[in-house]
Amino acid sequence: MHACSVTVVMISLTLFLAVAVKRPPMIITQPESVTVFSVEDLVMSCEATGNPQPIFRWTKDGEEFDPGSDPELKVSERSGSFAFYTLSNTMDSLKQYQAKYICYASNVLGTAVSNEARLNTDVPPTQQKEKKVHVKSEEGNSIVLKCNPPQSSMEPIIHWMDWRLHHIQLSERVVVGKDGNLYFAHLTTEDSRNDYTCNVQYLATRTILAKEPITLTVNPSNSLLQNRRPHMLRPTGSHSTYHSLRGQTVELECIVQGLPTPKVSWLRRDAEMSESRIIKDMFNRRLRFNNISESDAGEYQCMAENSQGKATHTYTVTVEAAPHWIKEPPSQLYAPGETVKLHCQADGIPTPTISWTINGIALSETDKDTRRSLTTGGFLILKDVNLGDTAVYQCQASNKHGTILTNTNVYVIELPPQILTEDGMTYTFTEGQKALLECVTFGSPKPEVTCASSLLEDPRVKPFTNGVLEISNVTHDDEGFYTCSVQNTNLSVNAELEVLNRTVILSPPQALKVQRGNTTIFTCLSLVDPKLGSPLIQWRKNNQKISESHTDGKYTIDGPDLKITNVEADDEGVYTCQVITKHDMAEASGTLTLWDRPDPPVLLQITDPKHRAVTLSWTPGDDHNSAVLEFVVEFEDQGLKERGWEELKRVTGNKQRASLPLWPYMSYRFRVIAINYVGKSGPSKPSEIHNTPAEGESHNIKYIFSASVHYCLLLLSLQEMDKRNFNGPDFKYRVLWRRVVGSGPSWHTNYTTTQPFTVNDSGNFSAFEIKVQAVNEKGEGPEPDPVIGYSGEDVPLEAPMNVGVVLMNSTTIKVNWAAVNKETVRGNLLGYKVYLTRIGSRSHHRGRRSREPENTLVVATVANEEEKVISDLRPYSHYALVVTVFNSKGEGPPSETLSFKTHEGVPGPPMSMMLDSPSETEMTLHWTPPAQPNGVLIGYLLQYQQSDDDSPMQVQTIEDPIATHLTLRALDPHSQYRFFLRGRTTAGDGELIMREGATTLDGAPPAKFNFTVGENSVNLSWVAKKRHRNVSFQIYYLNTNGINKWKKKEVNSSQSFYQLQGLTPRSHYRLRFTYSNSTLFEENIETLGTGVTEVQPSFATQGWFIGVVSAIVLLLLILLILCFIKRSKGGKYSVKDKEEGPMDSEARPMKDETFGEYSDLEEKRTASQPSLGEESKLCSEDNLDFNGSSAITTELNMDESLVSQFSRPSEGPEALHGLPDNSPLNPTAVSPATNGMPNSVTILD
């Protein structure tokens, strides 16, 4: 509990008004200065309050004035107000009332004095008759169209418009001056028109006067327009002085002429110019100060600049001030005997003088009183006041710019103390705020104030000043109860102070830069005390509230985010996020700046031309708020325009000129591109053409090539020089050549402008020294160094000799040979080529090997390499080998053929392996031999183990090389196994094939059934056991409502589902499940639906009828099968012939057309063996076309000879190399998982 003892508090006038006592007069409506344009405008009023009601009187120019006694004035007097207005009908009669008026309001407690009000009269501006004006001038000149608004005390607003009341388009070239005139910096022919109309608007009289239209004729210039440097049109001269008063709006103006249109900029010469204090208007021609202050006084310079020069004008701005209050004395209650100090302080330029009056009477005119004194600072002191000192005191401050006056009530009275503040108030503030706890008291005389020492020790506490306890920078420690009491009485009140966490913005809006047309988002995340509730987030732009845009969607406020779409120039500014709660507010600001690619540079100029250089300068365009990083200078060769514009140089963004290196004898145009963070500007307008003079050649070609196109011919290919290095006219190449051996020191010379250059009869691969020199009209290039070139090559003459082969292993050999004589190569030796052809396998007989395809491998070497190691050969094969030498023209003759045989190798993996389980403990493996035995098979190696990695590996050797199956016994029926099989030759064990599977368990019937009963059926389902053999069990069912006859259904355990049909609705059935003549279990069910009487069986349900129909269907099926067989036997040879003469695929390869006759049954039939379809319509194509599935028919009726070819394991895939990919005989068309054979383990597992 905090306590503070208070005897009394000063009372304000507003509290005093709440007390039912006498009150001094107070003027609440001051008379206002006015300019009268009509008799209705003359109204002078004054309003005041007080108790008793005040009485009004007036002075006119310091003399007493009674409006009620003037016959031309009418007075309106109501309680607390007084007004007078004129009864005259003419403006001339109002001139007598032009004067300064003061209103006085008096009652028994004193007299209040109003401010001085000035009344002026003026005649409203009127339309004057004018002559039509026709102005003529020449294009490029500057001109001023005058407005000449009528003279008036009102400030006019000027609008230049056409006859359709559309505003004249203003720009940097065409502006309106403060004098209302229309200024043209320079004229264009488009400015010609006959309706330039100046419209003058007066707001006070609500008048718009349209001046006479002006006709402007602009004649085209007969000569080239001459650029002109800027010149000031308004103001004239180089310096002006501008006097202003504090608080006024001041506009400085610079209107210039010039060609091209000058750019105007402003700067402050004596200090830094504050952008927040100024507004640039009228295309930078005006600098406006709203509410100018003393800090704005100084020197301001406007600068107009174009390519021809610049002009400046300097303004000296002085700011003076009319008097304004710094401190006004408050109206208060005083007790008799007190000392009253009335503090009155004012400021202005010049410094105002302070004077005092009592009830409107100057102190000098009142009775002398020693208790009254006036200090040098203008303070009035009244000592030992009594009830007679009650009055209204006026403090008046004056300088040459005006006078201000304030009334202060001094009321001397005796009243008992009271506490006016309600007891038990709770004050809530957030930390850091200034807490104000009210304890408003009332009483006179004024007692002394004392507070508890604990509060006074805190410098943040000001105890009950003006009835308020003030705690600055409040914290949570300040929370609690406070007591305010009046000393020597039992008066007191309590108040509670609650301190909450202040609202904090965690993530303020950032400074954003956005391109025009894009969308951007400001984010404002805050932390608010929960007791403050949900805050209001208010966004402002340049201190103006922002609301969501429901029409154009410009602004969208979503929680803490402000989304701005389609950003334009008007969207730039400072965006402030205000988080507002009941007790505090936090705000943070971010800026939005529109940035974009820079504008292209302008005003390109070429200066300082030198022999091979020039200086290019330019003026940067607008950078759109993103500083230019660099400028790119590009050039266009006028002689090679097809190359387009090419980059020449880059300079940093702070430079506006560049020294450019140039080539001789070229015609240039330049342009400049600016680059900033956003991107590249467009290119500037091209510069003028600049030509460089020719000079002697300074370069030679860098590369010369001699090409071998034809023997006895020297062909020179040159790397042509860039045309920019020609350096002058009549450019050509001087070619010099001579033989390296036998031709002596003399050089052969010729000239050419194009390539290639040829020398005939140069011999076969002869060496030449070659020089090529660049020459133009101005001179020769530097002396070139000779290079060696050769004449044309020819194919080699001889084959390599002494070719030998060394067998390194079953797949690698080393070939060597003797080097050929280099003279027989007849060219540049590039290397040797080894041709290696596989004839066939060593295991095949001669006739069969001759029919194997010959695969030739070509291996090339580098020059001077006389042996080569060749790998990846096929083991156990016959090979033939030859070697040739080659140069760039081709290969020479081959060496003698060398035959050799590769050693036996390990076999490849078996082609397939299938698992079959005859019992729970047995597994039979079926496999096909390896496609590549790589030797003579001597058997197989089988390894197997349980899938558990820790189980031992079992090994079994199979000595029979022609074995294709093996049965393993005594296996664990509960385990999975992995089987690994390899072929074996004398070279070792081959690659493996692996399969994984498990044995098949003995079958058993289901142990549990699920029943779903319907009206005519019951659905039975069960879970089929994995890896178990399928078994059959029986379902017997009996209708206990009808005849006691059991019916039987045979079911397979692998089905997992069976529907027992043909039941009678609403009937009871007994189901019995049996297996191997043993009953598994029985079940009673009841079918759904309503009961029906049993229908007598018809003939369609009799057994004899069903048997007859089944026999007919069976006969039709047999007939169709015969038709398919007859149609399938339409080939060029019979099955019997093939069976009598079996032959493997290598000895008698099967041709594509032969297989096609067996696979395309409908297109190829022979005349020697007609199809069944020709003899019977039952086998016609229409009757045999089951959904177009002729391919299925072909597969089912394949003759035995083709099947035998497909199933022979010893031949491998070579026997089928000619089959199409989609053929059923092609192993690649069969799933890799089955390797062409059904996999029973896949089905079982």
What are the main properties of this structure?
mainly beta, 1245 residues, five-stranded mixed β-sheet, disordered C terminus
Summarize the structure in words.
- It is a single chain.
- The protein is flat.
- The longest helix has 26 residues.
- The protein has 10 helices and 92 strands.
- The protein has 1245 residues and is mainly β.
- 6% of the residues lie in helices and 44% in strands.
- Strand 9 and strand 10 form a beta hairpin.
- Keywords: Cell adhesion, Cell membrane, Cell projection, Disulfide bond, Glycoprotein, Immunoglobulin domain, Membrane, Repeat, Signal, Transmembrane, Transmembrane helix.
- It comes from Cyclopterus lumpus (Lumpsucker).
- This is Neural cell adhesion molecule L1.
- It is found in: Cell membrane; Cell projection, Growth cone.
Mean pLDDT: 81
What does the largest sheet look like?
6 strands, mixed
Shape field: flat
Based on CA atoms alone, the radius of gyration comes out at: 59 Å
Please give the number of β-strands.
Answer: 92
How many distinct helices? 10
Q: Report strand %.
A: 35-45%
The helix-and-strand class reads mainly beta
* C-alpha end-to-end distance: 88 Å
Low-confidence stretches: 5-19, 845-850, 1091-1096, 1130-1245
The helicity comes to under 10%
Subcellular location: Cell membrane; Cell projection, Growth cone
Biased composition (Basic and acidic residues): 1134-1154
Region (Disordered): 1133-1180, 1202-1245
Membrane topology: Single-pass type I membrane protein
